[in-house]
Amino acid sequence: MGQYVQTALKHFLAVFILAASPLVALAEETLVFGTYAFEKPTTTVQKMRPILNVLENRLQELLGRPIKIRLQITQNYYGAIQDLAQGRVDFGRYGQAAYVLAKDENPDLEILAVEGNQKKKSFQSVIIVHDDSQMFSLDDLVGKSFAFGSKYSTTGRYFPQSFLASHGVTARNLSRYSYLERHDRVGWAVSDRSYDAGAVSKWIYEDLRRRGAKIRPIASFASVTKPWIARSGLSVEMKTAIREALISLRGVKVLDLIKKDCFIPGDDSDYDNVRLAIENNKLFFAK
């Protein structure tokens, strides 16, 4: 009889533990989070992984089941656009132009939230030159060389080319220009005098200055912040949970890693100025 009671007690305890710990009894659900290397891939991991860890915990609390987020980094903007448009990632952080171009390919993509600074959806980017340069205004760029980021980048290409063209600086009157893919490469290329000038986001400029880059700004322009986007077909339950989790991260310290302090509800119309910059990009190349 004693052995029977002991066996029964073990079964009871096993059932009790599983009932008291619902996350243990459920299979882990994995979400693929996509982004691309805005900087070196290792730096991108260092900045994004802590944020995703916090997001995992928030999602588990909201959904009541274990959630794992796998980080997938593409090497270039075009690959990221295809990942997003073709549903190879569940959700992700992408550039503004990347979102617009992917949305053209797949209209069912949905904005979950946009990054914010003090509840604002905008930030500054800068035109930079070498510390010792004799260039002090946009007019001084005529006849000089210029470094852009990716051909698909908002602040690395479309916005600065629109900004330059509006001030009379175009592909026709630059001595040469190139696309270096990443903002940090642009900053270092100007610092080592490979190019006379370039365009980078302000926080990249500040980071490069701290790391010893010999660069300074001569002009600035406003940009809309990055969206976090859900693939088409992601469940309403999951989209709602991710959206709620992101909005709940207001003031969380890990957001300092991407120079933001909150997430804000976003809408496709927030990126109409990006569409306009892409549409009018031909003005930079006018003969």
What does this structure look like?
The chain is of the alpha/beta class and 287 residues long. It folds into 2 domains: 23-115 and 226-268, D-Maltodextrin-Binding Protein, domain 2; 122-224, D-Maltodextrin-Binding Protein, domain 2. It is built from 10 helices and 11 strands. It has helices at 2-20, 22-25, 41-63, 77-85, 96-105, 154-166, 183-191, 202-210, 236-247, 272-279, and strands spanning 29-36, 67-74, 91-93, 110-116, 122-130, 145-148, 176-179, 197-201, 215-224, 227-230, 262-264. The strands form 2 sheets. It has a 6-stranded mixed beta sheet. It has a 5-stranded mixed beta sheet with strand order 7-6-8-5-9, with helices on both faces. α3 (41-63) links the parallel β1 and β2 (67-74). The chain is globular. The N and C termini lie far apart (97 Å). Residues 7-24 have low confidence and may be disordered.
Q: Give start-end ranges of low-pLDDT stretches.
A: 7-24
By CATH, the superfamily of the largest domain comes out as Periplasmic binding protein-like II
Rg measurement, Å: 23 Å
| CATH classification, class level of the largest domain | Alpha Beta
How would the global form be characterised? globular
Number of strands: 11
What's the CATH topology label of the largest domain?
D-Maltodextrin-Binding Protein, domain 2
CATH hierarchy: architecture of the largest domain: 3-Layer(aba) Sandwich
Termini separation:
97 Å
Derived structural class? alpha/beta
Count of helices? Answer: 10
Count structural domains: 2
Query: What is the residue-averaged pLDDT?
Result: 90
Largest sheet: 6 strands, mixed
